[in-house]
Amino acid sequence: MPADRTLNQLRATCRSADPVRAAGEGDHIAGVPARYVAAPRDTAQAAALLRAAADLDLAVTFRGGGTRQDWGSPPRRLDLILDTTALAGVVEHAAGDLITVVRAGARLDALAPVLAGAGQKLALDAPLPGGTVGGAVATNAAGPRRLLYGTPRDLLIGVTLVRADGVVAHAGGKVVKNVAGYDLGKLVTGAYGTLGLITECAFRLHPLPAAVAYVARTVDDAAEAGRLAAAVRGAQLVPAALEVDAPVTGPATVTVLVEGTPAGVAARADAARRLLGVDATVADRPGADWGRLPWRPGDTGLKLTVALSGVPRLLADARAAADRHGLPLALRGSAGVGVLYAGLPGTADPARVAALVDTLRAATAAAAGHTIVLTAPAAVRQRVDLWGPVDGLALMRRVKQRFDPDARLAPGRFVGGI
Amino acid sequence: MSTTTTDIGALAAALRAAIGADRVISDRQELRTYECDGLAQYKVVPALVALPADAAQCATVVRACVAAGAPFVARGSGTGLSGGALPHADGVLVVTSQMRDIVEVAPEDERAVVQPGVINLAISRAANPHGYYYAPDPSSQQICSIGGNVAENSGGAHCLKYGFTIHHVTGVELVTPDGERVRLGGRAPDTPGYDLLGAFVGSEGTLGIATEVTVRLTRLPETVRTLLAAFGTTDQAGAATSAIIAAGVVPAAVEMMDALAISAAEAAVHCGYPEGAGAVLIVELDGPAPEVDAQFAQVEALCRENRAFEIRIAADDAERALFWKGRKSAFAAVGRISPDYIVQDGVIPRTALPEVLRRIGELSAERGIRVANVFHAGDGNLHPLVLFDAAADGQAERAEEVSGAILDLCVAHGGSITGEHGVGMDKAKFMPRMFTADDLDTMHLLRCAFDPAGLANPGKVFPTPRLCGEIPGRRKGVNPAQAAGLAEVF
Predict the structure, then answer these.
(1) Is the full-model pTM beyond 0.90?
(2) Residue B480 pLDDT more than 80?
(3) Closest residue of B to A396, CA-based?
(4) C-alpha span between A7 and B294 (Å, rounded)
């Protein structure tokens, strides 16, 4: 094989051959193969690599745990995968200040025991095991406990970025309360790596609760589950999570998670049980599918959002629409915040899936929300607009142009072809 | 950056024609009413004031400014403490106080939709009958507007548990600096696309003007319990705070005042705090009754363990209000013990509190300038009140030095130059102490995306004025303006 000049230049940039290699079999993003993979060891090396990529006009996509590479659209161009898994570890855990600073490639499941040692947690659920902190931030991924604690954008208090041109920038800081300067952390949260590489994140932490209780009730159908969830929301339970699970067949389940002191949790769990109905059960751990996305690799995965009052109706309408289109639709999500996930088998007829997406888009729009196709087989992708209508798209394009004028960072992955 | 060649007379005529003569102020005496915001030490008389009636008029005003190349500054109630709404002498002050309708209260969605001039407390008043309230509670909540809260990402005493404005605003409609009306976010969560709403909240009027705000409503807590604990020293009060946090309790608020702040509050509002206290803590817990009851006993015990010599527990809302009266009046109260004062706003990691307080004490002694300390102890947000007499020789300068040195202390301890008052005009010069040139450049990229002409609240937040330049593109060749030396490209 002839010497690859680009590979050599990337290696020279790192002053080491180790972090850079030619792409192999598994090094593709949503089916698009890369030419090179680089795994920088620190922010400075990441910056050098991105500067070199700019000089060499390489298109770059970032990869953490690789758990969501099938989300979004495939990149229009891809030369280099910048792998963050060597940017691992905890930089700082100031337990007394309830904050931590971690590198973007740290895995959420590896971070949890470190924090638990001090009786603390980063209150983010990982819907897909193996995901990194950076990936969770880049996709603003959250699970059941978002009801009480919010999503990554609410917990991120500081960020270190490397821009497309290799410049390193910080925003926010290490204190929770801070309004100095623009909050660039918000900007890159959920941006799918199209504005810059996140190398370090500072997070607000929360104490681990002394007690938890999962109060669950099984009901006949999704609509009834929605009504129960609304009743819980109006009560004085302050739940950490309020989830609905409505599988393709069989009954639906409403689960309330309460966290707190042993005495407080016991009393609140009892109140939740009375509210949900006599046959509600109380457990100290969740069911097996708790917080998991209701689809498997290769399936179509949707995110449905609505204003809170629209949840019961969406649960009923989505089920009815799926039945009409003859599709087996699994629904699961945070009824307490107005976010539901929906899964369809990868084998389902693409035209019908596309038609159902249209129906769901109308149903969610009627309740001020959106239907987003997070992942889908190629045949479905060809037939649907993954993101649907996006307010403020012109402004978003202008932001992208300022941060990545040559459109080299994950081009085409995000809304409106950004 | 704006040029200063705007024909103000022509702009005034255009605005009168567009939004009505009674909504445009050009009389010098009337304009002077608007010469400052809550930070009265800076005064600039605006060239014009516009009072749009609605979002459409607001967009019209901004477009007229763009056409005339005139800078514009948005202002709500004018209570900001960083000079964020300080007018521009050659520009238009866009006052949103006429846009004060509560458009909708939707408890079933846990949302309210309001115009920007609506007063913070008015949202809670409208939501209370439904069992809900609007959580962020800046001290000025009886007069400050939600539009200003959005611009400054305002906090409040209870943000330790409930977060800031950013966590309670789910949508805005704004007029961009080029006069477009854009909707970001809304009633449902997780709107697709960049979180421009997140970037807009707290951008201090430099990315546009909010014309409608959708806020989150929070369920009124079932129970609220408040105690006042008196300690001999601030160190003891700080240790009690640390113990409470370490025990895994997240109080709704933990507020601390030192002896000087207490004496000022006593002089002003006779709040009756325990005599001889070197520090008092106000700790408030709220939430479900069984939870609050369990944790309140714990908090009380931790205060005693850390040598609180007196603990009072509010028996009812009236007594709770009395506890808070001393704290909430503290800023104004120091006027009783000092002719002039600076309200500082900085943040430190909470665990650095004892050390930072000692250093503030030393600074105070070295310069002969008294400092009263009031702070949101739970989240390390300090509000030192730097006392001076402007009539006394050199005192104002020394007070400024002490005030600036306190911010340096905050930065040196890994904190922030502002926790809730904003950067505005007042702290733009301190930004480089916290951020590198590259950090500020990167923030400026965002500003250029929204406001390439630099007309929205110029001179605020960023320490030095800068141009945006054309969007740089490697393959587009050298920018002509850059080649001609007319613009630096960011």
Answers:
(1) yes
(2) no
(3) B194
(4) 62
Interface probe with A: pick from B161, B176, B191, B194, most Cβ of A within 10 Å: B194
Optimal mutation site among B103, B190, B254, interface A, most CBs of chain A within 10 A: B190
Single-letter code of the amino acid located at A69: Q
A341 and A301 Cβ atoms separated by less than 8 Å: yes
By C-alpha distance, the chain B residue nearest A307 is: B188
Q: Note whether A167 contacts B163, CB cutoff 8 Å.
A: no
What is the complex's ipTM, to 2 decimals? 0.97
Q: Is residue B120 part of a domain?
A: yes
Question: Does B166 contact A186 at a Cβ distance shorter than 8 Å?
Answer: yes
- The whole-number pLDDT of residue A221 equals 85
Give the Cα separation of B209 and B58 in Å (integer): 8
8 Å CB contact of B419 and A267: no
Q: Chain A residues with CB inside 8 Å of B249's CB?
A: 207
For chain A, the domains span 5-83, 90-207, 211-283, 300-381
Calpha distance A159→A136 (Å, rounded): 13
Out of 3.30.420.40, 3.40.640.10, 3.20.20.30, 3.30.70.2740, the CATH code matching A300-381 is 3.30.70.2740
CATH of domain A5-83: 3.30.43.10
Are B195 and A140 in contact (CB < 8 Å)? yes
List pLDDT tens digits, range B359-387: 999 999 999 999 999 999 999 999 999 99
Looking at the fold, whether B155 and B108 belong to one and the same domain comes out as: yes
Please check whether residue B489 lies inside any domain of the structure: no
- CATH code assigned at B60: 3.30.43.10
* Average pLDDT across chain A, whole number: 95
DSSP B324-393: HHHHHTHHHHGGGT-SEEEE--EE--GGGHHHHHHHHHHHHHHHT--EEEEEEGGGTEEEEEEEE-TTST
Which CATH architecture describes the domain A211-283?
2-Layer Sandwich (3.30)
Q: Are residues B266 and B391 in the same domain?
A: yes
| Residues in chain A closer than 8 A to B421 (CB atoms) | 179
Q: Which CATH architecture has domain A90-207?
A: 2-Layer Sandwich (3.30)
- Residues B324 and B343 both lie in one domain: yes
Contact across the interface for B475 and A267, Cβ inside 8 Å: no
Domain stops at, among B95, B128, B150:
B95
Q: Which residue of A has its CA nearest to B202?
A: A179
Q: Phi-psi bin for B14: left (phi > 0), alpha (psi -120 to 50), beta?
A: alpha
Give the residue from chain B lying closest to A400, CA to CA: B449
DSSP secondary structure of A231-292: HHHHSS---SEEEEEE-SSS-EEEEEEEEE-HHHHHHHHHHHHHHH-TT-EEESS--TTTT-
Query: Which residue has tokens 């609505």?
Result: A306
* Element at A302 (helix H, strand E): strand A300-305
Task: Looking at the complex, report in whole angstroms how far the Cα of residue B461 sits from the nearest Cα belonging to chain A.
Answer: 7
Instruction: State whether A184 and B348 contact (CB < 8 Å).
Output: no
Q: What is the pLDDT of residue B478?
A: 45
B282 contacts B226 by C-beta, under 8 angstroms: yes
